[in-house]
């Protein structure tokens, strides 16, 4: 099948787009308002963009009920900082709870029974129990226009200025132990996955791709 998202409906009962880019890592993003209100929310339109220095991005839809901005967008606009915590299998239920749209006054981190850890350089807290945290400063926001105003998205890019990795998630060889962390990720619909298997591939050579090199002329 084929469809043009700008021109006509896909014809599926549920929009298939999210199921077509999988798995998507979940950025568990904590922010703080100018008045000091903490917010925590998961975003699966999330990824790392670079590493020297590292930048990360995530994309936030409009608040569907009243057409206003989500707390995360408002807070980053006010204070310019956020923290990424890795969402893992152990904290999947709390992660899910923090995805509820609630009043701005509600601190989802407290409400879901999680504990906060202070950050080193930025004001938003880290999620205790999460094995990885990135402290970030806001770099740029790009508005992605929706086909209707309630489909607009804010693509937020942040620069990572501090990286925390839980010591017991680092192997003796100095590698981050993905299987031990067991990150969760989003698929389409209500589906999720978690990293419970890993495989390796050696880097290939030009000969692997092109066959035996010809003798030099
Ligand atoms: C696993 C998961 C992934 C989500 N991914 C996104 C996303 O990428 N973008 C988005 O706008 N909302 C996403 N949501 C919904 C937000 O987390 C939800 O609207 C949240 O409450 C944000 O609101 P706040 O910033 O006002 O707290 C996701 C929810 C869940 C449970």
What labels would you give this structure?
217 residues; alpha+beta; Pnp Oxidase, Chain A; 7-stranded antiparallel β-sheet; 3-stranded antiparallel β-sheet; 13% helix; binds flavin mononucleotide
Topology:
Layout: E1 24-25, E2 27-32, E3 38-43, E4 46-51, E5 54-61, H1 71-79, E6 81-86, H2 92-97, H3 108-111, E7 116-117, E8 126-127, E9 132-144, E10 153-165, H4 178-181, E11 184-186, E12 192-194, H5 206-210
Antiparallel strand pairs: 1-11, 2-3, 2-6, 4-5, 5-10, 6-9, 7-8, 9-10, 11-12
Bound molecules: flavin mononucleotide (FMN).
Mind explaining what this structure looks like?
The radius of gyration is 20 Å and the shape is globular. It has a seven-stranded antiparallel β-sheet, with helices on one face. It has one domain: Electron Transport, Fmn-binding Protein, Chain A (Pnp Oxidase, Chain A, Roll). A hairpin with a 5-residue loop joins strand 11 and strand 12. 26% of the residues are buried. The N and C termini lie far apart (50 Å). 13% of the residues lie in helices and 32% in strands. With 217 residues, it is an alpha+beta fold. It binds flavin mononucleotide. Flavin mononucleotide binds next to strand 3, strand 5 and helix 1.
């Amino acid at each position: 099948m084929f469809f043009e998202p700008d021109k006509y409906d896909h014809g599926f009962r549920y929009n298939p787009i999210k199921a077509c880019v999988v798995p998507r890592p979940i950025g568990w993003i904590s922010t703080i308002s100018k008045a000091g209100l903490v917010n925590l929310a998961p975003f699966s339109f999330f990824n790392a963009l670079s590493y020297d220095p590292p930048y990360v991005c995530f994309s936030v839809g409009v608040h569907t009920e009243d057409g206003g901005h989500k707390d995360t967008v408002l807070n980053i606009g006010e204070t310019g900082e956020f923290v990424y915590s890795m969402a893992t299998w152990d904290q999947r239920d709390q992660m899910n709870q923090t995805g509820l749209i609630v009043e701005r006054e509600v601190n989802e981190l407290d409400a879901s029974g999680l504990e906060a850890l202070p950050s080193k350089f930025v004001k938003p807290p880290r999620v205790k129990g999460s094995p990885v945290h990135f402290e970030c400063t806001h770099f740029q926001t790009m508005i992605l226009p929706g086909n209707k105003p309630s489909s607009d998205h804010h693509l937020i890019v942040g620069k990572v200025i501090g990286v925390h990795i839980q010591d017991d998630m680092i192997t003796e060889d100095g590698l981050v132990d993905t299987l031990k962390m067991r990150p969760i990720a989003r698929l389409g619909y209500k589906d999720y996955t978690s990293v419970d298997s890993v495989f390796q591939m050696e880097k290939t050579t030009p000969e692997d791709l092109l066959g035996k090199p010809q003798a030099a002329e």
